[in-house]
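FAQ: What does the model actually see?

It sees only this:
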Amino acid sequence: MASIDQLKQDLEFNTNLFGHNLTFRSTWGIFSPREIDAGTELLLRHLKIQPNEVVLDLGCGYGPLGLAIAANAPQGEVHMVDKDFMAVEYANKNADLNCLSNAKAYLSNGLSNVPKNIQFTTVVSNMPAKVGKEMMSIMLHDIHEQMAPGGQLVVVTINGLRDYMKRNFMEVFGYYDKVKQGKDYTISRTIKQ
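And it is asked to produce this:
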């Protein structure tokens, strides 16, 4: 067993995401602190991004989705939000560490602190299984309101939430596309008409 001092040190790893070599630092208590989780990897394998996207990474953690997208959208901007202050701190550290000045993270419960004048072309999320139906409803309506026409929302969830996501996407956006279903995770996509 590691000593307490060792456990308190930042975890660091290198990985290739979305065609870019990135370095991440994280800490215990943040989701998947030692490696990129399988859901995030699956989402990135099936995501299409333009170089000038305006992106929201909802529930960003230490930033793997948002920063991989920022590396592929050098003329765009990536807003990363999380309700956990440590996740936000590490997402910003990782943006600096990887020289991705087009990405920034800030505290927000859903879209509550996201500037209302921004129209996103892409919103991504590694959706937690326990988000709750009320918060899910608030988030989807807020995303719809701040999404540019033709914009996409792409989420990864555990397979057990696939039908739930389909119902919610249909209710708010009127469109649902199951992009990919893996062994444990499903990539769901909707578009603002």
